Amino acid sequence: MPDLLAHALLAYLVGTLLSWRYAWLDQRWVTVVVIGAFIPDLVKIRLVVPQGAVQALFGDIPFSLTALHTAGLVLLSILVGVLFAAPRYRKPVFAALATGAASHLLADALILNPSGRSYAILWPLTRLHPPSPGLYLSTQLWPTAVAAGLAAAVWVADRRLEPAPDAE
Amino acid sequence: MTGRSGFARLAGSPTVRVVAILLVLGAQVGMLSWYASLDPAPEAGDYPGGYDLQRNYERWIGERASLAGTVTDTDPVRIEVGGAGGRTMVVEGAPPDAEVNDKLRLFATVRPDDRLEVIEAFAIPPGEQRHMYFVSFLAGLWALWRLLRHWRFDLQTWGLVPRAETESTVDHGARSQTGSDDA
Q1: CA of A54: how far to CAs of A14, A41, A80, B8, B74, in Å?
Q2: Residue-wise pLDDT tens digits, A52-71
Q3: For residues A78 and A42, is the Cβ–Cβ distance under 8 A?
Q4: Residues forming a β-bridge with B128
Q5: Judging by DSSP bridges, how do beta strands B115-124 and B87-92 pair with one another?
Q6: Per the CB 3.0–4.6 Å rule, which of A149, A159, B55, B125 could disulfide with B183?
Q7: Which of B66, B152, B172, B177 is the best mutation test for A, with the most CBs of A within 10 A?
Q8: Which candidate, A82, A88, A104, A102, places its Cα nearest to that of A5?
Q9: For the segment B26-67, what is each residue's pLDDT rounded down to a tens digit?
C-alpha cells in the first residue's frame, strides 16, 4: 500500500474487525496492531541516517537496510517489540504486532513496479520476488482514501455495536 | 504466564531482556549484511539495481535491471542513480512526461556507455513524494498518540502494559458488564 497512513488505517480496520471476534482484543490491542503496521517501514530510517555514513562504518562489508522490509527481519523486529512488553503479555503482543506487520507486507506486495515484480517478501525463506498485480503506486492518494473510508465505516459500526448482556 | 519457576523469573528480568534485545538487533545487523551481499537473481525476479550497476557495470550489459533515479535532464532524459553524486545515465524511451527532479522508476535493458533502454518506466513528481512523507509522519503521530493513551511502562514488571480499561477501550462487540451503551 502507499503511505504509512494507509497502512495504519488498514491495520486499524483489520484490528477492529478482529475485535468483534475476540473478546480480549479491545482498542488497546488494536493500537498494537496499528503499531505492527509500521514495523516493515523501519527501513525508512535511512531517510534520516545517511546510508553512506553507515556503509563507511562497515567498510568493505556490504550493508543495506532494504531487507528490513522482508518477513525474516520483520519477525526479528517483532521480537524486539515483544521483549519490550511485560512478560505476561508476550503472546497477544506478538499476535497483534504480527497481524499489523503482515497486513503491511501483503499490501506492499500489490504495489506497481516497472518490472512487474514485488519485493522479496518471504526472505530468507526464499529470494523470490513474486509477480505483483500492480494495483497502485506508493505515492497515489486513492488507496489512502479507500482505507480511510473503510476505517471510518468500521469505526462507526464498532461504536454502534451494543454490548451483549453480561455473562461475566 | 508469570510462573514461580526460576526460569520464568529470569526470563522476565530486565537484564536478560535487554541482552535478548541486543542479541536480536545483532542478528538483524548480520542478516542485513547477508542480504546486501547477495548477488542478483533475475530468475527469481531479483533484478540488478542501481547499486549493482555502480559496483560492476560491465557485468550487467545486455541484462535487465530494475532501478530508480532522479531526473536531471529531459533532452535526452538523464537520471542520477544512487543519490547525489551518483552515476548519471541516459534513459532511452523514457515516459514523455518526465521532468527534472522527478523520480523515475524503470525496468530497462542495460546498454554500454551508461545507457538504459526502457522496457517499462514511470515518473513520480517530487510533490507527490513529499506528500507521502508528510502523511506518513502524521500516521506516526496518530500511532504514538494511541500508544500513549492505551499503554504505559510498568517499572515493576519492566515492560509495557495496557492501561486500565476505560470507556475508550471497551470493546463494544464483546460481552460487557455495563448496560446498554448509547455511544
Answers
A1: 36, 18, 22, 38, 33
A2: 666 677 777 888 888 999 99
A3: no
A4: none
A5: parallel
A6: A159
A7: B172
A8: A104
A9: 999 999 999 989 999 999 999 999 888 988 999 999 999 999
